[in-house]
Structure formats: C-alpha cells, structure tokens
UniProtKB/TrEMBL annotation:
Transfers the 4'-phosphopantetheine moiety from coenzyme A to a Ser of acyl-carrier-protein. This is Holo-[acyl-carrier-protein] synthase. One of its GO terms (cellular component) is cytoplasm. It comes from Mycolicibacterium arabiense. The gene is acpS_1. Residues 6-121 form the 4'-phosphopantetheinyl transferase domain. NCBIfam families: acpS (TIGR00516), pantethn_trn (TIGR00556). HAMAP family: AcpS (MF_00101). GO terms for molecular function: holo-[acyl-carrier-protein] synthase activity; magnesium ion binding. Its EC number is 2.7.8.7. GO terms for biological process: fatty acid biosynthetic process.
Amino acid sequence: MLGETGIDIVPVARIERLIRDHGDGFLRRWFTAGEIEYCTGKAVPSRHFAARFAAKEAVAKTLPGHWDGPLPWRSIEVVSTPTGAPGIRLSDAPLAIATSAGVGDIRISLSHCDDYATAVAITTLSAERRDGP
C-alpha cells in the first residue's frame, strides 16, 4: 500500500557554488562518506551531489513528524542497490520516524542534466501497518 510521495528539484549550479564556497564542510554536513566517494568519482560530481541533495529533500517530505533542530541530512543516505539503482538507507531520527509511521520501503528515482537534478520518493507501508488500524 502506498504511503507518501515527495519530490524535489535542485539547480546544479547551486550545488557547484556551495561546493566551491564551502568545500568539504558543505559535503560532510550533507553527505555520507559513501555518497561523497560515489559522486566525486563521476565526471561531473555536482550533478550527482545535486541529485542526492534532491533525494534527501524528497525523502524528508515523505516522513511525518518534525525534528528538534536541523534535519540530520546524513541520516538519509542514497545508496546503490545490487542492481545499481538508487536506494535509500535511513538511520537515527529519520529511521525512528519511518518505523513508527509504518514505512516498509522507500523507493526513489533520480534524474539530472546540466542545469537541474530532481528526485521522487515514494513510501510503502509495512504489512503490519496495512493490517493494523
């Protein structure tokens, strides 16, 4: 059963500027070591960072609740599935919120071009949530 849907779009130039102006500080605040390694290995890293930035925002839009302070962006990680497709790994507060809301899975789709990156996230409810009240 479908849960929530989130979408986000990010200008690639914005991410290029943040990387240029804030370097590793920006990257380490928003991205995990695995995401940084993946993106920096690409021909145009800013496109891939922008797509992951958009994915984190899209996933956050699917999760009910709020945070006491800034959202822990590194706790929403874009990973590669065994087929090479993007997937999501949650930890810490986002994982707790998703679990308590009965989220069973989060699917994402990423796309980017020279100017923009976009992501869509869709949650499904776990079997317990579907069968419950």
